[in-house]
Amino acid sequence: MLVRRMGSLSPLADPARLAALRATRLLDTAPEECFDRFTRLAAKLLHVPTACISLVDDRRQFFKSAFGLGEPFATARETPLSQSLCQMVVAERAELVVGDARLDARVADSDAVRDLGVIAYAGVPLERDGQVLGAFCALDTRARRWSEEDVATLREVASAILVEVDLRATNRALVERLETALAELDALFEHLPVGLVLFDAELRYRRINRHLAEINGLPIEAHLGRRVPEVLPDLPPELEATFRRVLDRGEALLDQQVQGATPARPGELRDWSASYFPVRRPDGSVFGLGNLVLEVTEQRRTERERRQADALLRAILD
Predict the structure, then answer these.
(1) Which of 24, 64, 273, 287 is deepest in the core (most CB within 10 A)?
(2) Are 201 and 288 in contact (CB under 8 A)?
(3) How far is CA 78 from the centre of its chain?
(4) 66 and 52 in contact (C-beta within 8 Å)?
């Protein structure tokens, strides 16, 4: 519902605030230990039966964590705004401290007093990027006098909650950037005009791009999980020795000249320019091998023909 206040839209329904709240991706999510730890801690430090992390939108409050909350609210994990004192913290962008709700004109007619049995309440704003997302509150079913130290404790724990929210947002942004980068790398891997393959330490194919699969004359699926000699039975022994050298010594060998046959052209030798490089774990140890392959058969043939023509011309001129 949209509540109008003083002729303008209620602060609870402010689009910028609601967008900031949704951006946390915490609404309607399952309970999580990292947040439950904060409410347990507050209840213990303040000696109250209930503590809540309440996120308030324009129609309800959602409890991201609610320690000691009675049923049916603990299972529902939300209440309408009519049963929320936290909405006042959000609307006023200020702390709310109530020693006895039955005697406090600000909240005496709230359904939270009747339905949830809230007598004493202390809540502080959960503010992020200039927007109040909800409140961190402590509740008691009997009247009490809240000390400044009590409220300061709520502020401290609320700050820790916001750090957790910020860390989650940062991690999410990093994951999204990483996923984008990996998607771009995947596209690059598949569309490179040269052959690219990744082997594990046993020389099994783990990734191969379409270009190299076409050079071999086999579909990508025919490579994956198989060892090199199974796919390329005519593999020169010195080439497997080169693979082992990279894996065992962690050396990169660039622009190596290789000649051999492929399943697509059995018995027909082809020429390649190949580079080999170790693939390392974060600790620096080698767990695989990368191989960049460029077929240069036609270029080599052209070079040989040119050299033969030069030699013939010199013989004629001599």
Answers:
(1) 64
(2) yes
(3) 28
(4) yes
What is the rounded CA–CA span in Å between residue 304 and residue 302? 5
Say if CB 296 and CB 250 are below 8 A apart: no
Tokens of 33: 């230990």
- Give the Cα separation of 180 and 174 in Å (integer): 10
Tokens of 281: 């774990």
Beta carbons within 10 angstroms of residue 3's beta carbon: 14
Exposed / middle / buried, residue 117 (Cβ in 10 Å: 0-12, 13-18, 19+): middle
Q: Contacts from 112-117 at CB under 8 Å and sequence distance 24+?
A: 112/79, 112/83, 112/84, 112/85, 115/83, 116/69, 116/70, 116/73, 116/79, 116/83, 117/70, 117/141
Give pLDDT tens digits for 220-242.
999 999 998 888 777 777 778 88
For 147-164, how does the pLDDT look when each residue is reduced to its tens digit (9 = 90+)? 999 999 999 999 999 999
Helix intervals (H) in the chain: 15-23, 33-46, 73-76, 86-92, 111-115, 148-191, 210-216, 228-231, 237-249, 297-317
> Length of the chain, please?
318
pLDDT at 311 over 80: no
* Cβ count near 180 (within 10 Å): 10
Q: At a CB cut-off of 8 Å and minimum separation 6, what does 304 contact?
A: none
- Residue 209: closest CA among 196, 226, 198, 219: 196
Q: Answer whether 52's CB lies under 8 Å from 136's CB.
A: yes
Considering the chain, what is the average pLDDT of its residues?
A: 86
Residue 289 has pLDDT above 50, yes or no: yes
Condensed to tens digits (0 to 9), the pLDDT of residues 103-132 reads 999 999 999 998 989 999 999 999 999 999
